[in-house]
Each structure stands twice: as C-alpha cells, then as structure tokens.
Design a protein that fits this description.
This protein is mainly α. It has helices at residues 2-6, 15-42, 45-75. The longest helix has 31 residues, at 45-75.
C-alpha cells in the first residue's frame, strides 16, 4: 500500500507495478489473515485461546501506537497528515 502513496505523483509510475500488484497483494494478505484468524478461533482449546490472546495483544499494541503517534506529533508540532 505504500507504493500507492509513494508513486502517486511520480512520472515513473507504472500502473501494473505501482497500483495493480500492491492492491492484489493487500487483498491476498487480508484474505490470509482472515483465514488464519478464522481457523485459529474455530480450532478450539489452546489454539482458540492463543488466537484470541494474539488478537487482544495486537489491538492493544495498535492503540498504544496510535496514542504514541498523536502525542509525539503534537510534541514536535508536526501534522500527521501533510496537506498540500
């Protein structure tokens, strides 16, 4: 997904390598993630417990990262999204 933003206004932008392939890769990764979570939760027992714990840890880490990004950006007086 970084390729979509990095090459948004570039003259060297190639639709196949900078748009289509990154989107297909993102979709494939998302499908694989959902399949692993689905199978992990349906697995029962220790697998189910570990899957739920991993999801909770990932969500907590996401919240910590978002809070850090906001606090650090405000301390340095830098916008998170630069509007041109």
């Amino acid at each position: 997904m970084v390729a979509l933003l990095a090459f948004k206004r570039s003259k060297k932008r190639n639709p196949l390598t900078h748009i289509i392939i990154p989107i297909l890769g993102f979709i494939a990764n998302l499908v694989m993630l959902l399949a692993v979570l689905y199978l992990g939760i349906l697995g029962g027992g220790a697998t189910q417990t570990a899957s739920i714990a991993a999801i909770i840890v990932a969500l907590v880490w996401l919240v910590i990262g978002i809070v850090y990004l906001n606090v650090n950006s405000k301390k340095q007086n830098r916008p998170i999204i630069i509007k041109e």
